[in-house]
Predict the structure.
Amino acid sequence: MRLVIIGGPGAGKGTQAAMLSREFGIKSITTGDMFRSIQKRGCEEGMEIGRILSEGKLVPDDITIKAVGNELGLAKYGPGFILDGFPRTVPQADGLDAILASIGRGLDLVIDIEVDDEDMVRRLTGRMVCPECGLIFNRHNEGYPGDGACGACGVGLEARDDDNEETIRRRLKTYHTSTVPLKEYYSDRGLLHTYVSEGIIERTYANIIGALKARGII
Ligand code: ADP
Ligand code: ZN
């Protein structure tokens, strides 16, 4: 199974990628996580990437394509992969095509999760992440832990540096100008499946499973 998930910031790409990955035993690649871990190394490149992330801009295409290309070459992606957050620009999609052509593979499906812009802003301004286990909570939701600690491991929840309103708005703008053109790119290739999400995780997942079945991918 070789899938791409596209969608704006906070659309829920990562959540769906993790669920699919668990159910089908296919590894996912989350470019945002990849860059955050390079940032944590604190090297020259990490600091540069950290600046780009905190400004809500995109990491340059050449760096991104190379990083994903190196990762996709690993044996663990032999059975397939789920790309979460890549490609985000047309040049990245061309880069992915070239990478896949070089290993004699193609994509099965591109899942596009559409969410209303203001819903995405609301989700991201409330998003709190457990630094220990990665579980995601939302300050705007009922049942948010009063002590601000992760329900699973008790560690204090943190907001991501780029989840402040100004940066969120910039990420949304970047999404509309750079990533939305990918919908046409992939629909022209007969690969696009769009789901308009109202934010119910299970419903989005069921729709994706339906699309995979309808195309004989699973
Ligand atoms: P979100 O989808 O909520 O914006 P991600 O964790 O996917 O969050 O990405 C965080 C940041 O990482 C992006 O704002 C961008 O700076 C960088 N990034 C992630 N994927 C890419 C990509 N494919 N190309 C360029 N930059 C990327
Ligand atoms: Zn936790």
